[in-house]
Amino acid sequence: MKARITVLGGDGIGPEVTAEAVRVLEAVGKACGHEFEFPEALIGGAAIDASGSPLPPRTIDACRSCDAVLLGAVGGPRWSDPNARVRPEQGLLELRRTLGLFANLRPVKTLECMLDASPLKPEVVSGVDIMVVRELTGGIYFGRKSRTALEAEDVCSYTSDEIERVTRVAGRLAMGRRRRIVSVDKANVLETSRLWRSVVERVIAEEFPEVQLEHMLVDAAAMHLIRRPASFDVLLTENMFGDILTDEAAMLAGSLGLLPSASLGEGTTGMYEPIHGSAPDIADRGIANPYGTILSAAMLLRHSLGLESEARIVEDAVRAALEAGVRTADIAASGVAAVGSREAGDAVIARISGGS
């Protein structure tokens, strides 16, 4: 297979972690007979500095003409002025809209060898295997906005079509898992959540009758993610709730640096990125955790390129590296020396190439 994968390193540690994911993809391509190209483009703060726009036309063209997009992170204190007209995050939101990426998949799975990295008790996080499906192009992040010196407004809005399509994604995923969906909303307060609940009920009943559906208010979901996380299978939610809950769920695995994500639309082109931010405090030090980005590359192989066995090779290599104790500073065991980003990438590549 030949494929073009546009790499958007972005800001902070983004270029460092995407570099390791690219090296892993190159190793998989060599081992399995594929040819991958990796054109690069700018997004976020780096793009603002270079062109004045967080999403230049060249970047849009590069993303439209490729098979998949690999993203690092955007943002940082250099561009954090709340009064700024142009902000790095605008580039990411607009790219999702431009590419029609409405479903964000965020798997949260704990490994037995990593239970000590979580701040929760091992017996609580053991066996966790959750797939969060977050609606990505609607809700309060994309609603009408206004601001004056004395008042500000962010409108949260959803259409039934937006809810239907992301529910179908969750339904298809649930059918291949344990056939349970928890749909998260705030239906006791919000009209958007009442619409969300009614549409989700209808789609699951009509199209996925084998799937068990449970509704849960977002505050209860936040509590139960910590109290009994292993009880969740597929967790379906709107944009902002999903953004917040998945950061919380990262603590089940031990670190934001371990979790990948895939942003998908109707076609095969998707955008893949770790769920962590740009971490400017550790940028350019070579110590960032690349595992979440490498696992995002595995999702890229699976969902955009249809290379399931290659995706499993990468996931198995990451697991083997972690089982061997190859940990970056954010997940290092007490008294054990941490490795850098490059060393973590080397450990994964060695296992893909048949090393130890």
Q: Any overview of this molecule?
A:
- The protein is an alpha/beta fold and 356 residues long.
- It folds into two domains: 1-101 and 267-356, 3-Layer(aba) Sandwich (Isopropylmalate Dehydrogenase); 119-253, Isopropylmalate Dehydrogenase (3-Layer(aba) Sandwich).
- The chain has helices at residues 14-32, 45-51, 57-64, 88-99, 122-125, 160-175, 191-207, 218-227, 239-253, 291-303, 308-323, 341-352, and strands spanning 2-10, 35-37, 68-73, 103-109, 129-135, 145-147, 152-154, 180-185, 212-217, 234-237, 260-264, 270-274.
- Domain unit count: 2
Instruction: Summarize the biggest pleated sheet.
Output: 10 strands, mixed
- The helix count comes to 12
Oligomer: single chain
Mass-distribution shape: globular
**What percent of residues adopt helix (DSSP H or I)?**
40-55%
Task: Provide the CATH topology of the largest domain.
Answer: Isopropylmalate Dehydrogenase
CATH superfamily of the largest domain: Isopropylmalate Dehydrogenase
Low-confidence stretches: none
| Helix and strand pattern | EHEHHEHEHEEEHEHEHEHEEHHH
Radius of gyration: 20 Å
In angstroms, what separates the terminal alpha carbons? 27 Å
CATH architectural label of the largest domain: 3-Layer(aba) Sandwich
Indicate the structural class: alpha/beta
The largest beta-sheet arranges its strands as: 2-1-3-12-11-4-5-10-8-9
Q: Report the portion of residues in β strands.
A: 15-25%
Provide the descriptors you would attach to this structure in a database record.
356 residues, alpha/beta, 12 strands, 10-stranded mixed β-sheet, two-stranded antiparallel sheet, Isopropylmalate Dehydrogenase, 2 domains, 12 helices
